[in-house]
Automatic annotation (TrEMBL):
It holds the Pfam family Methyltransf_33. Residues 22-324 form the Histidine-specific methyltransferase SAM-dependent domain. It comes from marine sediment metagenome. This is Histidine-specific methyltransferase SAM-dependent domain-containing protein. One of its GO terms (molecular function) is methyltransferase activity. Keywords: Methyltransferase, Transferase. GO terms for biological process: methylation.
Length: 326
């Protein structure tokens, strides 16, 4: 009976009710270029598949970033403010934060994610391993809305350090990335910091293999989003009517993931509408923008953040950037 009392505090800050979210999803599917927001990848099965993707030989970002962190952790930690509030954006299972705790000794850990039950269980594991550390969860779609002012004010004198690893910033188109980073900047005050990972430009064959592995795990991950849409809209997508396609769009410097209709057919979107898909018609499911070092530093600057230092791997395939308010 005492277990619930021992769970980390959880705040819910979701702005849009479920019905509005469904309307946004439906609207995307009915556009001339049908689109599904990449946040719908991450149901239980999607999370399992993404974990498997991170272990693939072709998927370099996770291990490359981990190598950078392992090699430079102490140097990075020395540049962070003391008595910080560590804000893990999209914390998932909190494993990355767990690896940082011995080096940074924060005053508090704040996990921010859209999946409430998973967030609380992940933070509970952090609290179990670090019983003297306050852990708080915030359930929100932080890519659309971020308001942590009241929470951060509970710890005056403890500046926030926002932690956004894994190159997820690449899922935003550049203008949207600037808007998102400005929301982080607005929370920083004079002493806050942002520690962020970004994927860098590299040969096309390396990029495309990372999003279309030989074992088909990424294909299954992409196709699984149709099962999520079926549940959200009571739709009748048949995943076998689509195939996975990923390619590097050089003009826009991004990898694009699509689902391609293998035949002409119609889908019932839960009685709201029917959507016809012609053979070879695409549904866009994800962008993953890639940057040069100078381009990403310029993106930070446009967001009101100065890149104080950055670290890369020997091949310059991935960058970890430490930024502070301008």
């Amino acid at each position: 009976m005492s277990l619930a009392l021992d769970l980390p505090r959880l705040q819910t800050a979701l702005r849009l009710p479920a019905q509005d979210e469904r309307q946004k999803l439906l609207h995307g599917l009915l556009q001339p270029q049908a689109r599904i927001d990449s946040k719908y990848f991450y149901d239980d099965r999607g999370c399992e598949l993404f974990t498997a993707i991170c272990l693939l030989d072709e998927y370099y970002p996770t291990r490359t970033e981990a190598q950078i962190f392992n090699q430079h952790r102490d140097a990075i930690a020395a540049l962070l403010p003391t008595n910080m509030q560590w804000i893990d954006l999209g914390c998932g299972d909190c494993n990355k934060t767990q690896s940082w705790l011995p080096a940074i000794s924060p005053a508090r850990v704040v996990g921010v994610d859209i999946a409430g039950e998973f967030l609380q269980s992940s933070l509970a594991e952090v609290a179990l391993q670090h019983p003297q550390l306050e852990c708080v969860g915030v359930v929100t779609d932080f890519t659309q809305h971020l308001d942590l002012d009241e929470l951060l004010a509970e710890r005056p004198g403890a500046p926030p350090v926002f932690f956004y690893p894994g190159s997820s910033i690449g899922n935003f188109e550049p203008r949207a990335a600037i808007r998102f980073l400005r929301r982080i900047r607005a929370h920083c005050g004079p002493d806050g910091r942002l520690l962020i990972g970004a994927d860098l430009i590299k040969p096309r064959d390396v990029l495309e293999a990372a999003y279309d592995d030989a074992n088909g795990v990424t294909a299954e991950f992409n196709l699984n989003v149709l099962n999520v849409v079926n549940r959200e809209l009571d739709a009748d997508f048949e995943p076998t009517n689509f195939r996975h396609f990923a390619h590097f769009n050089e003009a826009h410097r991004r990898v694009e993931m699509h689902l391609v209709s293998t035949r002409s057919h119609s889908v019932d979107l839960g009685g709201h509408a029917d959507r016809h898909f012609g053979a070879e018609e695409h549904i866009l499911t994800e962008y993953s923008h890639k940057y040069s070092l100078d381009e990403f530093r310029a993106l930070l600057a446009a967001s009101g953040l100065r890149c104080s230092q950055y670290w890369t791997d020997p091949q310059d395939w991935f960058g970890v950037f430490l930024a502070e308010p301008i």
